[in-house]
């Protein structure tokens, strides 16, 4: 197959790495995004996605085959189009408006023989029931038949240097055999291994299984952690011991809750679809969501109780939070449970200071003073709360100098440390 022109709609955490990888594989790539600010930055060689270095972006631009653009007209004459736009929740239900806008935008440029692939995470049936009719009515063509349509879930793990786009197996699907063949051949140019499945619905469900599995297991271990606290048993040690079983066990760690744009959201796409199509509840998902939502409150209560035992009230206490991002070693604060912990402690009357070396200033939560992690800051704090365990933090310094540490991540050791 001789693919010449690729359009990637959405130049965010998923779309930008895909576009750059395709340039490196020899394709001519238009990176489309409605966010003019992002496109301007990309055109100037300024990457905002941690996994794409400025040098790598610079090389892609210098090749003359990467064209960041806000104009759908630049898609004219494309061979393959991949859609990587957001799929958030609105009032607890899937918001597919971005996918609809992308489909409506690209539809007029779909020709006979072109291939369109959806990568955004969504409920099973979206590609066939929502995207297909949009593309058909905008193009006047049909799929299967005139153009090819497929789904391939993204598995990117931002900030993970080991598992990258090219060495993570890619699940691929199409509405029919011909579409599957096109989608598979495209991704085989970009990744080491593809995993073809029989239908777009199977591929859509695959992604939701992966994220629901994580969400449910984190919920399980979080509930066990809260109960173990009341039973007076060290859950962390029990997990470590269980982990020595060489088969049939996979460890999950407790934490202050789940955040970001995947785990709290993706399983809800599945439970929403189950409710809509079957009129039934997906009980595991609902339960895991409830438990994981409880965790920031649990952390705040435990900090309050810890201060109380030392004869200090949370009102007026000076607290030092380590980490505000939802995930270790990133600055991403979208739906971060750490931010919720900060708000809850402030609402209890504490003065909240936080150390967050990765966050951009404009995204920091109101009322939280950002400081450096120094011995003086640690000594001044009535309590240090480890919420997001970035590797760059000096946990030894914290363990040695803090009066009291509440550690939600099992990083600190010593007599002043209480673990989640
Ligand atoms: N980030 C991850 O780790 C990850 C991993 C797997 C799957 N996903 C899924 O991939 C999808 C994209 O996620 P992301 O993290 O890249 O989001 P993102 O917000 O980083 O990027 C999406 C981009 O799409 C642009 N956009 C929105 N509507 C558009 C339109 N109509 N036309 C052109 N551009 C448009 C936005 O301006 C934004 O720049 C989501 O469905 C997400 O659930 C994300």
From TrEMBL:
Top-rank taxon, per record: Bacteria
Occurrences of domain UDP-glucose/GDP-mannose dehydrogenase C-terminal (ranges): 320-414
Molecular function terms, GO-annotated: NAD binding; oxidoreductase activity, acting on the CH-CH group of donors, NAD or NADP as acceptor; oxidoreductase activity, acting on the CH-OH group of donors, NAD or NADP as acceptor
Single GO biological process annotation from the record: polysaccharide biosynthetic process
Family annotation (InterPro entries): 6-PGluconate_DH-like_C_sf, NAD(P)-bd_dom_sf, UDP-Glc/GDP-Man, UDP-Glc/GDP-Man_DH_C, UDP-Glc/GDP-Man_DH_C_sf, UDP-Glc/GDP-Man_DH_dimer, UDP-Glc/GDP-Man_DH_N, UDP_ManNAc/GlcNAc_DH
UniProt keyword Cell membrane, yes or no: no
Keyword NAD on entry: yes
SMART domains tied to this protein: UDPG_MGDP_dh_C
Keywords, ordered alphabetically: NAD, Oxidoreductase
Family: Belongs to the UDP-glucose/GDP-mannose dehydrogenase family.
Protein name per UniProt: UDP-N-acetyl-D-glucosamine dehydrogenase
Source species: Micromonospora rosaria
Organism placement in taxonomy: Bacteria, Bacillati, Actinomycetota, Actinomycetes, Micromonosporales
């Amino acid at each position: 197959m001789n693919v010449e022109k690729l359009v990637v709609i959405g130049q965010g955490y998923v779309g930008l790495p895909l576009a750059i990888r395709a340039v490196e594989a020899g394709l001519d790539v238009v990176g489309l995004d409605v966010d003019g600010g992002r496109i301007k930055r990309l055109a100037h060689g300024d990457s905002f996605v941690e996994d794409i270095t400025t040098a790598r972006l610079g090389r892609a631009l210098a090749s003359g085959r990467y064209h960041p653009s806000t104009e759908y007209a630049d898609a004219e004459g494309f061979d393959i189009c991949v859609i990587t736009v957001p799929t958030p929740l609105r009032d607890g239900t899937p918001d597919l408006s971005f996918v609809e806008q992308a489909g409506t935008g690209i539809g007029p440029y779909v020709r006979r023989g072109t291939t369109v692939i959806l990568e955004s995470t969504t409920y099973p049936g979206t590609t066939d029931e929502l995207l297909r009719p949009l593309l058909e009515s905008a193009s006047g063509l049909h799929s299967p038949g005139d153009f090819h349509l497929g789904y391939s879930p993204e598995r990117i793990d931002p900030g993970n240097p080991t598992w990258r786009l090219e060495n993570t197996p890619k699940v691929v699907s199409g509405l029919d055999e011909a579409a599957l063949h096109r989608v598979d051949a495209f991704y085989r140019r970009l990744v080491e291994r593809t995993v073809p499945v029989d239908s777009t619905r199977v591929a859509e469900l695959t992604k939701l299984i992966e994220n629901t599995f994580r969400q449910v297991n984190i919920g399980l271990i979080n509930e066990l952690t809260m109960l173990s606290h009341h039973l007076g048993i060290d859950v962390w040690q029990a997990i470590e011991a269980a982990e020595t079983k060489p088969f049939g066990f996979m460890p999950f760690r407790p934490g202050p809750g789940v955040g970001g744009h995947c785990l709290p959201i993706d399983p809800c796409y599945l439970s929403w679809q189950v409710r809509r199509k079957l009129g039934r509840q997906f009980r595991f998902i609902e339960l895991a969501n409830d438990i994981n939502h409880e965790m920031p409150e649990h952390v705040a209560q435990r900090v309050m109780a810890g201060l109380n035992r030392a004869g200090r009230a949370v009102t007026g206490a000076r607290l030092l939070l380590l980490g505000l991002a939802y995930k270790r070693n990133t600055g991403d604060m979208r739906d971060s449970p750490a931010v919720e912990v900060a708000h809850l402690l402030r609402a209890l009357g504490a003065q909240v200071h936080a150390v967050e070396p990765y966050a951009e200033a404009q995204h920091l939560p109101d009322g939280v003073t950002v400081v450096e992690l120094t011995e003086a800051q640690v000594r001044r704090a009535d309590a240090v709360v480890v919420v997001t365990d970035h590797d760059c933090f000096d946990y030894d310094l914290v363990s040695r100098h803090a009066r009291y540490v509440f550690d939600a991540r099992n990083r600190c050791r010593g007599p002043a440390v209480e673990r989640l």
